[in-house]
Amino acid sequence: MNAVTRPAAEVNASYYGADGSGRVDVTAALAAAAQAIPPGGGRLLLRPGTYPVSSSVLLGSQTEVVGFGATLVASGDWRRRDGAGNPSAGGYSAIANRGFRSAGPAERDITLRGLTFDYTALPLGEAHAVSFRQASGIRILDCRFTGGGNGTALLACRDTLVARCVSRGTLNCAYDHWEGTSRAVVADCFAACARNYGILFTGVGTDAQDHRRATDVKAVNNRIFTPTQAGIWVCSDSAASSVARAQILDNYVYCGTPADGIGATGDVSDVVISGNTVKAVRGGNAIFIRPDRWNRPHGAAIIGNRLLDCTTQGDNVALIEALGDAAVIRGNRATGGTYPSLVWVNGAECALADNQGDAVTSGQKYRINPARHPVVEDP
C-alpha cells in the first residue's frame, strides 16, 4: 500500500484580522496567525494587500509564508523595544525566527515566498526586513525589499538560499550574512543599493562573542548596482573569525561610485572570483584580495573576469589588487577606463597569466614584489 501524504496545514492570516487593507497595524494579527501553525509545520497565507507592522512577527520551524502581492510596511510607530523595554526579539525586523534571541533549540526549515517589504518610513535604516539567527534550512524566494537597513540579515545560520529577490534602496546591505552563516547561497538576485553593500558574507558577528567560521558560501548570477562600499564582499573582519570556500561566480556589478566591485579581506581561504563583470568603478578596485589588520587571505583564484570602463588612481594602484598568498590571477580582461596597473600582487606563491588591459597609465601592467617570487607567465 502506498503511503498517503497529508497536505501541510494552511492558515489564512485574514482569519486572524490581517485583512490587507493597510488601514490598521496588523502585527498582533500576523503574530496570532503565525502562532496558529501547528508544531508539525504548515503554510501561512497572506492575500494581496498592504500590512502595516510595528514589530517582529516570529516564525517557528517548518513554516512557509506565502504572500504574492502582499506588502509588509514598517509603520510610523515602529517599536524598537518590547513592553518590558528589552530589544525587539527579531532585531527590529518584520519577520524573524522565534529563537532569535534565545539559547534554546534553533528553528529549521522556514520559507518566505513572494513577499514585499517596504521600510521607506524608517529613513535611517535602523530596521531590517528579515532576520534569522541560529536557524537552518532558510529559503527566501521571490521577495522584494525597499528601504531599511538590510533586506535579509542571516546570522549564524546554516543551509540558506536567497533566490530571485529584488532589493532597492537598502542603507546597509541588500543580502547580509553574519556570524558565520555557512552553506549559504545568493542566486539570481537584483540589488540597487542606496549605500554600502550588495552581498556580504562574514565570520564576525554583532556581539563580541560571535566570532565564527563561515564555510561554503556562494553568490551566483546576481546583479548589483551602485554600492558605496563593495558590490560583493567576503570578509572575516576579526582576529578570531574566518571564511573558507567562497565562490563568487558570474555576477554583474555596476558601481558608478568610488566603491569597490568584488573582493575578500582577512582570514579568507579558497575564494574563487570567476566569470564576473565589474563596470564603472570610480576610484576603488574592481576586484580586491587584501589583508585586514589581523590576517591575510590565502588561496584566491581571480579568473576570467571582465572589467569595463573602470578608473582607479592614487592609493588604489591597480584594477585587481591581490595582496594575499597563493593567489592565481588568470584570464582577466579590462577594457576602457584608466588605471596605473592592471594587477598588483604582493604575496607568496602567486601566479599571473594571460591578463589583458588596454589603459595602463604607468606603462607597467603588473606591479609585483619580486622578493615574494611570483610566477609571471606574461610580463
Please tag this protein with its features:
14-stranded parallel beta sheet; disordered N terminus; mainly beta; Pectate Lyase C-like; twelve-stranded parallel beta sheet; 2% helix; 379 residues; 46% strand
Query: In what order do the strands lie side by side in the largest sheet?
Result: 1-2-5-8-11-14-17-20-23-26-30-34-37-40
> In terms of structural class, how would the helical and strand content be classed?
mainly beta
Helix content: under 10%
Poorly predicted ranges = 1-7, 81-90
Amino- and carboxy-terminal Cα gap: 71 Å
Principal-axis shape equals elongated
- The rounded Rg comes to 22 Å
Task: Write the CATH homologous superfamily of the domain at 172-376.
Answer: Single-stranded right-handed beta-helix, Pectin lyase-like
- CATH topology name of the domain at 172-376: Pectate Lyase C-like
Mean pLDDT: 89
What is the CATH class designation of the domain at 172-376?
A: Mainly Beta
Q: Could you say what the CATH architecture of the domain at 172-376 is?
A: 3 Solenoid
Largest sheet: 14 strands, parallel
Portion in strands: over 45%
Q: How many beta-strand segments?
A: 40
Counting DSSP H or I runs of 4 or more residues, the number of helices is: 1
Overview of the molecule:
With 379 residues, the chain is mostly beta strands. The chain has a domain at 172-376: Single-stranded right-handed beta-helix, Pectin lyase-like (Pectate Lyase C-like, 3 Solenoid). The strands form 4 sheets. A 14-stranded parallel beta sheet has the order 1-2-5-8-11-14-17-20-23-26-30-34-37-40, with no helix packed on it. Strands 3-6-9-12-15-18-21-24-27-31-35-38 form a 12-stranded parallel beta sheet, with no helix packed on it. The longest helix has 9 residues, at 27-35. The model is unreliable at 1-7 and 81-90 (pLDDT under 50).
